Amino acid sequence: MTLRVFITGAGSGIGAALARHYAASGATLALLGRRRDALDELAASIPGQHLVYPVDVADPSALQTAAADFMARQGVPDVVIANAGVSVGTLTEEADDLAAFERVMQTNVLGMVATFQPFVARMREQGKGRLVGIASVAGIRGLPGAGAYSASKAAVMAYLESLRVELHGSGVKVVTIAPGYIATPMTAINPYPMPFLLPADQAARRFARAISRGTRYTVIPWQMGWVAKLLRVLPNALFDRIFARAGRKPRGLPL
Question: For residues 103 and 58, what is the distance between their CA atoms, to the nearest angstrom?
């Protein structure tokens, strides 16, 4: 049976890499993103016939419409990947950054909830499916200059854990993927070293394996998994001294 995959944030980066990976294996895709031109270009470049939805995940009603259209045409998706996300440097002392905080939380957290909501009951009825949330190692500890992004990804991880427990025994698997540094437009502007930087196509293959297995939680690449474990146990005083000098993402409009 042809795999049906619903992907947000498909216009670039990890989302586009995942779309290319699944299309190459014969899947039917729903490609969602804010820029129709990028989605159309992607759809034309990959094998198969796919549905394109120029949708901002910050608009729940538009997401519901897209989800209903896809299910009417193709049926309930086997995999829903809430990948859409934005990132930008933020400082609490700057009044102008309040709008950036709001945008990051609206997209990264509420956008994920709105992405999953139309499918949960239908997947539960069928007793199968994958709900995949893209979190981040940045959500494990609060990073300086990235308060909005770190907070949003910490919230995402807690939300996905709650959802996973809610759906325990239903046959629906909730998969949390916490990437480290992946080579995408989002990380391209980082003015600091990015250890274990992984090309997006390689990351997509590893993500897909975790999704297929129904892995509850994984960090990719695996080297950042060890970093994540260290960060969890690092005493606050030592963490503060080390990361006070860490590089910071530029402030500006969320990307």
Answer: 8
In a domain, 92, yes or no: yes
Side chain identity, residue 208: A
| Distance from C-alpha of 2 to C-alpha of 27, rounded to nearest angstrom | 6
- Give me the percent of the chain exceeding a pLDDT of 70: 99
- When pLDDT is averaged across residues 66-75 and rounded to a whole number, the result is 98
C-alpha–C-alpha distance, residues 255 and 250, integer Å: 11
Q: Is residue 248 part of a domain?
A: no
Catalytic residue at 181? no
Catalytic residue among 149, 181, 192, 217: 149
Tell me the C-alpha distance between 73 and 53, whole Å. Answer: 13
219-244 average pLDDT score:
88
CATH number, position 143: 3.40.50.720
In a domain, 252, yes or no: no
Q: How sure is the predictor about 158, in pLDDT bands with cuts at 50, 70 and 90? A: very high
Q: Look at the chain and report how many structural domains it folds into.
A: 1
Q: Over 80: is that where the pLDDT of 214 sits?
A: yes
pLDDT in tens, 104-132: 999 999 999 999 999 999 999 999 999 99
pTM of the complete model: 0.93
Q: What is the SS3 assignment for 42-83?
A: HHHHCCCCCEEEECCCCCHHHHHHHHHHHHHHHCCCCEEEEC
Whether 251 is covered by a domain: the verdict is: no
Residue numbers of the domain that contains 165: 4-243
